[in-house]
């Protein structure tokens, strides 16, 4: 029987690359969150605009354009004039990542092992767990949509 975890690890060895995974902790609000308005500071360097306390992790993955039905990533195929259709991707993560909806994936320009700037900011819209025999988690297939990346996000890389 094939070991899908090992297969994905080999694939990531060949075509994978590192990204920054921003995991939200929905138990704790960031100090930028305003209870009265229910909004967070979009340019907050501590939470990347999520409104929650976050932890960041460097993980390896690979992505491909989302060619699945666009409703999975929350992208409308028909949009009014003037509205941009965000880029949508499917990422693949190893079994131990446990991605959650609304967490962020930051595509990074690296200099050695150090992040220099954010190239793309993706928000997870749907995380599909892929299970094998006896329900063992083999990997995750994650649907994302592009969200606004401000210059303050680049500054946040050095603060974490």
Would you write up a description of this structure?
- There is one protein chain.
- The N and C termini lie far apart (42 Å).
- This protein is mainly beta.
- The longest helix is centred in the N-terminal third of the chain and has 12 residues, at 4-15.
- The chain is globular.
- A six-stranded antiparallel beta barrel has the order 1-2-3-6-5-4.
- It has helices at 4-15, 151-159; strands at residues 17-29, 52-65, 88-94, 104-111, 114-131, 137-146.
- The protein has a single domain (4-74, 84-159), classed as Pnp Oxidase, Chain A.
- A hairpin with a 2-residue loop joins strand 4 and strand 5.
Provide a brief overview of the structure.
This protein is mainly beta and 160 residues long. The chain is 13% helix and 44% strand. A hairpin with a 5-residue loop joins strand 5 and strand 6.
SS elements, strand count: 6
The main pleated sheet reads as: 6 strands, antiparallel, barrel
Structural class: mainly beta
Give, in order, the helices and strands.
HEEEEEEH
Measure the end-to-end span: 42 Å
Which architecture does the CATH hierarchy give at level 2?
Roll
Number of domains: 1
CATH fold naming: Pnp Oxidase, Chain A
Total of DSSP H or I helical runs spanning 4+ residues: 2
> Over the alpha carbons, how many angstroms does the gyration radius reach?
17 Å
Strand order of the largest sheet: 1-2-3-6-5-4
Residues in helices, as a percent range: 10-25%
Mean pLDDT: 83
Q: Briefly, what CATH class?
A: Mainly Beta
Which regions have little confidence, pLDDT < 50, spanning 5+ residues? none
Shape: globular
Beta percentage is 35-45%
């Amino acid at each position: 029987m094939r070991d899908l975890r090992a297969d994905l690890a080999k694939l990531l060895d060949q075509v994978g690359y590192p990204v920054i995974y921003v995991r939200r902790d929905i138990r704790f609000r960031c100090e930028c969150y305003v209870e009265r308005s229910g909004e967070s500071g979009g340019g907050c360097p501590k939470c990347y605009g999520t409104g929650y306390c976050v932890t960041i992790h460097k993980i390896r993955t690979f992505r491909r354009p989302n060619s699945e039905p666009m409703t999975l990533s929350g992208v409308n195929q028909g949009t009014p004039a003037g509205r941009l259709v965000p880029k949508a991707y499917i990422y693949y993560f190893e079994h131990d990542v446990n991605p959650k909806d609304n967490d962020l994936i930051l595509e990074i320009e690296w200099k050695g092992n150090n992040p220099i700037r954010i190239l793309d900011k993706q928000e997870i819209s749907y995380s599909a767990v892929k299970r094998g025999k006896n329900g063992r988690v083999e990997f995750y297939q994650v649907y994302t949509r592009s969200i606004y990346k401000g210059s303050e996000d680049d500054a946040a890389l050095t603060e974490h």
